[in-house]
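User: quick one
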Amino acid sequence: MASEKKLVEAITSMDVDFAQWYTDVVKKAELCDYASVRGCMVIKPAGYAIWENIQKELDRRFKETGVENVYMPMFIPEGLLQKEKDHVEGFAPEVAWVTHGGLEELQERMCVRPTSETLFCDFYAKDIHSYRDLPKLYNQWCSVVRWEKTTRPFLRSREFLWQEGHTAHATAQEAQERTIQMLNVYADFCEEVLAIPVIRGQKTDKEKFAGAEATYTIESLMHDGKALQSGTSHNFGDGFAKAFGIQYAAKDNSLQYVHQTSWGMTTRMIGAIIMVHGDDNGLVLPPRVAPTQVVIVPIQQKKEGVLDKAFELRDMLSGFRVKVDDSDKSPGWKFSESEMRGIPVRVEIGPRDMENGQAVLVRRDTHEKMTVAIEELADRVGELLEQIQKDMLERARTHRDAHTYVAEDLDSFVKTVNEKPGFVKAMWCGCQECEDKIKELTSATSRCMPFEQEQISDKCVCCGKPAVKMVYWGKAY
Amino acid sequence: MASEKKLVEAITSMDVDFAQWYTDVVKKAELCDYASVRGCMVIKPAGYAIWENIQKELDRRFKETGVENVYMPMFIPEGLLQKEKDHVEGFAPEVAWVTHGGLEELQERMCVRPTSETLFCDFYAKDIHSYRDLPKLYNQWCSVVRWEKTTRPFLRSREFLWQEGHTAHATAQEAQERTIQMLNVYADFCEEVLAIPVIRGQKTDKEKFAGAEATYTIESLMHDGKALQSGTSHNFGDGFAKAFGIQYAAKDNSLQYVHQTSWGMTTRMIGAIIMVHGDDNGLVLPPRVAPTQVVIVPIQQKKEGVLDKAFELRDMLSGFRVKVDDSDKSPGWKFSESEMRGIPVRVEIGPRDMENGQAVLVRRDTHEKMTVAIEELADRVGELLEQIQKDMLERARTHRDAHTYVAEDLDSFVKTVNEKPGFVKAMWCGCQECEDKIKELTSATSRCMPFEQEQISDKCVCCGKPAVKMVYWGKAY
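Assistant: Done. Structure below.
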């Protein structure tokens, strides 16, 4: 094994240089590549197949809550983008502008959507008339463009794929309930499918979405102790409705403004999977999102019957996403390659195994090896995939909890942030000045005010004034 | 019924004004709407759900042939677009140009992809090294932009959704086989799923794709006798490979150019479904692509037990895409609405039906009514959906064949085109001059040189010189 491992070009160790390790995994697991367009990426088959599984699972969960998919144009006329004051201030500096259509200059330039609130609002203003038209529970899968200065594959690119849900409701309460409902869909999806534990909470006013009344977030912790905002859900109140004139006739015939929400999750979750679960051998995929769950590697495959047996095992495992690696590479190379790609379970089958009526199973996450009787293979693989899924979530949770600290005063806060990568829980007075000061001192930002509040002390960690909220702080991607 | 039909606002009769009928159906069946961006559309839930079913079926068929999905950037730098001479000439006049990113002017402007040959080629040039890297069988689902002057919902819009497959092969033969294979995937999909019969054939040089060596097409006939190009598959030979320098080391270590194909199908197929199957009551959806296959309408739904029974029937029909319409509208209104939306089968259930242990089934396509015993409901609905699917294809084929004419000389050709909407089969000498002349005289274009050739005469219908091919001609969308 040891010598054959070298066959697969080594990746940087994550403890030596986490950023380089990340880039190496993205490249060697063939998830994505840079494109000729600066800051944009080519998502390759291995990366896109993960996104397809994310889409499938999320889409199903959305539809179970009554959401319907639609498609809005990718362009926003400048005048439309400017209708909501906070929103345009937040996005105008980072959009791409189209000025010419064919050979002619446009009368009004258009941006490529950085997000589609304005388009949905424009549509809702025309489409919503009566309380009978509500709620509108629309979502779209598309790509958006934000002209970022520094980019990293999946985490921050000038174009990325996402879904954006946009709903309109008769009442403020209904909008608030939908905002939280979708946040919970994201949180459950992350934990159940991606095996990534999340903190659910509310963003401070400083960190909320441009134009939102309140932004809710799920925050996860990467292996290097940095936080990643993993999904957000916004309650807009009736702010956009007033800016765009979205009114409906209520049952009593009075004219009312709708209340709106939006919520999104993006391809950056592929980056989260890499950074939460990966190791020095490459990607480690949670079984529920893995495009290939089981790889079968024949040993001495040129010996009679071995390849046939490998395909026989594949047919026995047809309830899973399974592949036989019958390429002309050596078994050791195949092992390393399937580890690099993060395939959860490897099945090895050779002449000696066949004689004994057994096969060898190897877990990608722990490298644990076990021998199983072939007639029990399908059952054991099923159990193992379930176990791996569960263990990966638990391991990530243990890691996160072990890297979550508490600070009661500014000195210990600064010391913790500087010395111990992770979340810091600390009390906050509610003033942006303290957020600004903490960011200046440590580069950590408020990640969220968690729904599960704890009373660490009664004073703000920064200014010492009476605290109103316990906040998770951290350096973030 | 007659009086209640008026409840649903009438649509223009297709015989009175086909174009207005089409627009009315698009609007009243709530398939799409115009957006604030001129020439772009908002695809509404009823329209997008059809597209999702098209995607699902096509994607499965692609993957069965080994195709993998990827995602390329939406922008093409101007220099990249210009690398293949014919291609840029074909597309440059109709692209949208991005000139600014954020507040800064770009050093090189970029267009929003009108199609992605250049991006795939740029990627393949970096990613393909050896014969071991071939074939590349990539596809992407995305939206593209072509700055058209006149637009119509689904049929021609400035932005539309599609898939574009791009493959690279070691040999010319393999590329040609893939080109035809994918054309056949499209043809089978249209006939089996959309119930739209197609003519398979090759485009003339005049009508082929910009940069292609050969373009193959499937052509279908709309109810008004106009043709619709429904899917195309292009063989590029090694033209793009030479322009982009896409070479691989062959087994004998010689450096060879790859041979490429591309193939695409778009949201215009929703327009085709409307125009092939629709009638004066609205949309008629083939069961296999219908988002809702069965609607259950309770009669006298306020009477005890009726609604419960309706939901009981829904559960019995859980193998189908089924909905109960329990809104507070009248049954007649519900009938008209479900007809407008094209739902293939309606189930009516009321107190008298319940007494008799039966329900009423109504076919959307023929309006035929039948009474079935409730215990046989699921079986009968299943059979009926199959029958409708089959009958719709046959009806469309009969209509097409009845509107396919033969012309042996120019006079009868012009007369036929002017008087009888449909396809005209006629011989052709192979010269573009004759194509141009026919277009000038009749506005009909060559649709394709069908694979199934017939020898109508031995002379070109236009110039009388020796004929080389039989061609389908027609006025097209």
